[in-house]
Design goal:
The protein has one domain: Nuclear Transport Factor 2, Chain: A (Roll), CATH 3.10.450. 46% of the residues lie in helices and 29% in strands. The protein is built from 6 helices and 5 strands, in the order αααβαββαββα.
């Protein structure tokens, strides 16, 4: 007499196999989302959006305490002066043009991972006559802005802006 196959084994294997496949998909999704270059792109986009919206607390949180620009201005200056300049805009859109992202892995143990974003920024918007001067000056430059980010901890999303470099910053008071 033949025994009927034990259907419990087949039924149990399908949910386990399905669970393993779902778990693998989640791991691949998180690896792609937490990739260093992907995080650098996300942080840069959030910074531009925060500047457009004049969200100074968000911008402050994205900047490292030791932030500096190529003219030697510190974080306090970098939060104060753009706030003063951008208050002249009623509407503001900043469009990055031809951004290039580069993640720089540490050469020595203990050094932080850094990343750079080189991009031209196109300003558009309306406001006072001073807003139009800012917009025209920024849009007429032939040099890209260089943003430098530093990964602050083991967390994939923990990046801080450590510097911005552009010739226009050398003209600022």
């Amino acid at each position: 007499m033949k025994h009927a196959p034990d259907s419990r084994n087949g039924v149990t294997a399908v949910p386990i196999l399905g669970g393993v496949i779902i778990l693998m998909l989640i791991v691949f999704f998180l690896m792609a989302r937490w990739d260093s270059e992907e995080q650098l792109m996300r942080h840069q986009a959030r910074l531009i959006t925060a500047v457009e919206g004049r969200k100074w607390k968000k911008i402050d949180a994205m900047m490292a305490a030791d932030f500096t620009d190529n003219a030697g201005h510190d974080k306090a200056w970098a939060l104060r002066e753009p706030r003063e300049a951008l208050r002249h805009f009623m509407t503001l859109t900043i469009a990055p043009k031809q951004p290039t992202f580069q993640v720089l892995y540490p050469k020595r143990e203990g050094d932080p991972m850094t990343g750079t974003v080189s991009t031209w920024l196109h300003f558009d918007g309306n406001g006072t006559p001073f807003a139009h001067i800012i917009k025209d000056t920024a849009n007429s430059t032939s040099d890209p802005f260089l943003f430098t980010w530093r990964k602050e901890s083991w967390k994939p999303w923990d990046w801080k802006l450590v510097s911005i470099s552009h010739p226009l910053l050398l003209q600022a008071p």
